[in-house]
Amino acid sequence: MTNQQPLVAIIMGSDSDWPVMQAAAAMLDDFGVPYEAGVVSAHRTPDLMFEFAEQARERGFRAIIAGAGGAAHLPGMVAAKTTLPVLGVPVPSRHLQGQDSLLSIVQMPKGIPVATFAIGEAGAANAGLFAVALLATTDNTLADKLAAFRQAQTEKVLNMTLRRDA
Ligand SMILES: Nc1c(C(=O)O)ncn1[C@@H]1O[C@H](COP(=O)(O)O)[C@@H](O)[C@H]1O
């Protein structure tokens, strides 16, 4: 994280979500996008969640990445209180492996969208990448970095070699 104005907020229902949600933070770090990360819960800190969501736009955030597990109401409730884009990350849950988190986040009623990503670390990383892509619509330097990331990824896969004697 840098000292610049944070453009992305990464919020999560509990600090137990951080091992997954840090993949979003790592992606923003890689692209040099300033962000703020913290714990906010629709269930356990409802007043803080309302305050956060109501102030998010005026605080200068351009997108919110919200991760939660189980009855994952945080992304949808935050989306209900802000017009900023909310990117939802279903965190794997102990008993239902995140299927509950996924369905809680993705099945929003018409009118309040949450852009929902895959369960777990890949979803968190992709939410970070998607936030970069959103910001890159008005930032050519970031768009160039995103293109370079894609190119490097393509080259890495093209250079993958498989054992042929197996
Ligand atoms: N789904 C939510 C919300 C919410 O949606 O407001 N607040 C906490 N949680 C989730 O509860 C799980 C267990 O939390 P603990 O590990 O703190 O018991 C976490 O995955 C968290 O996201």
From TrEMBL:
<feature type="binding site">
    <location>
        <position position="14"/>
    </location>
    <ligand>
        <name>substrate</name>
    </ligand>
</feature>
<dbReference type="InterPro" id="IPR000031">
    <property type="entry name" value="PurE_dom"/>
</dbReference>
<feature type="binding site">
    <location>
        <position position="44"/>
    </location>
    <ligand>
        <name>substrate</name>
    </ligand>
</feature>
<comment type="function">
    <text>Catalyzes the conversion of N5-carboxyaminoimidazole ribonucleotide (N5-CAIR) to 4-carboxy-5-aminoimidazole ribonucleotide (CAIR).</text>
</comment>
<dbReference type="GO" id="GO:0034023">
    <property type="term" value="F:5-(carboxyamino)imidazole ribonucleotide mutase activity"/>
</dbReference>
<dbReference type="InterPro" id="IPR024694">
    <property type="entry name" value="PurE_prokaryotes"/>
</dbReference>
<dbReference type="Pfam" id="PF00731">
    <property type="entry name" value="AIRC"/>
</dbReference>
<keyword id="KW-0413">Isomerase</keyword>
<comment type="similarity">
    <text>Belongs to the AIR carboxylase family. Class I subfamily.</text>
</comment>
<feature type="domain" description="PurE">
    <location>
        <begin position="6"/>
        <end position="157"/>
    </location>
</feature>
<comment type="pathway">
    <text>Purine metabolism; IMP biosynthesis via de novo pathway; 5-amino-1-(5-phospho-D-ribosyl)imidazole-4-carboxylate from 5-amino-1-(5-phospho-D-ribosyl)imidazole (N5-CAIR route): step 2/2.</text>
</comment>
<feature type="binding site">
    <location>
        <position position="17"/>
    </location>
    <ligand>
        <name>substrate</name>
    </ligand>
</feature>
<keyword id="KW-0658">Purine biosynthesis</keyword>
<dbReference type="GO" id="GO:0006189">
    <property type="term" value="P:'de novo' IMP biosynthetic process"/>
</dbReference>
<protein>
    <recommendedName>
        <fullName>N5-carboxyaminoimidazole ribonucleotide mutase</fullName>
        <ecNumber>5.4.99.18</ecNumber>
    </recommendedName>
</protein>
<dbReference type="InterPro" id="IPR033747">
    <property type="entry name" value="PurE_ClassI"/>
</dbReference>
